[in-house]
Amino acid sequence: DSGLASFRAHLLARPDVLTRLRDGLLRLIERERNGEQVERPLLTTLLRMLHDLALYDSHFGDAFLEATSAFYLAEGEAHLATHDVPAYLAHVDQRLAQEEARVDHYLHSSSRKPLLSAVRLALLSSHIDILLGQGFDALITQMRIDELRLLYSLLSQVSALAEVRAAFGGYIKRVGTAMMNDVEREKQLVAELLAFKDKLDLVLSGAFASNETFGHALKEAFEHFVNVRQNRPAELIARYLDAQLRTSNKGTSEEELEEVLDKTMTLFRYIDGKDMFEAFYKKDLSRRLLLDKSASTDAEKWIISKLRTECGSTFTSKLEGM
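RESULT FIELD:
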C-alpha cells in the first residue's frame, strides 16, 4: 500500500506523464475502433494500474467518454449519409456489441453503463428523426420484420418508443386515408383493408412485441382514416358481408367464413356510422331471406349475435325478428 501511495504521488507530481498516458490510451482505442489491431494486454495493464491508483475516473474515464461521444457523433453522421436505415441499424447494433466486448477485455466494469449510454446517445438519440422519417415507412411497406424488431429494440434503449409509436400511427393514417379516398378501388376496398389490418397485426406482434400502446395507436389510426368519408365505409362493409353470406359462397368452409366475418366485425368496430350500417345490412338481409340466397343460417345468426354484443339488443331486434 505504501508503494502504491508513493507511486501515485510521483505520477500526480508529473501531470505531463499522466496526460501522455491518457492521450496514448485514447489513441490506441480509437485505432481499434477504426479496425486496426492493437496491443490489448498493454491497454489492460495500464488501465488496471490507473484503477489501482484511484486515477481511472479522474485521469481517463471522463476524457474517454468525451472522445467516445465525439467519435460516434462523427461516425453516425457519415454512416447515415452513405447507408440506408436498415444498414445503419445493423451497424449500431454491431458497435454496441463491440463496446460491450471492450469493457469485458480491458476497460473497468464501472465504464460499461456510461460508455453504452454515450454510444446510444451519439448513434441513436441524435438521429431519431432521420431513422423514423427516412426509412420507417419503407420497412413496414416491405414487411421487413427483423429490421423493424431491431429498430424497436434499439430505440427502446434510448426511451424513444413514443416516437416510434407516433410514426407507426402516422404511417397507418397516411396509407389508410389514401386507400379510402381512392374511388376506383371501392369494390375491393374492404378486402384490402382487412389485408392491411392483417399485415399491421403481423408487424405489431413480430416487430413491436405486441406492445399494448402500439395496439392502441393502430386502433386510433384505423378509427381516424376509416371515417374520413362519413357513411361510405358503413355501406361498403354491409355489402362485403352480404357478398360473403350469399349462396355464391357455399363452397367456403364454415371455419373460413367465420374467420372472414370475424375480421370484418373488427373493421365494423372502427366505423362511426353504425346506424347507416344497420340500414344497409337490414336491406341486404331481407333480400337474402326473401330470395333464399343465404349461404348459412348459422352464419347469419352468428353475425347478428356479434352485432348484438357490439351494439346492444335494440340494434339487432329487427334483424333477429327477420
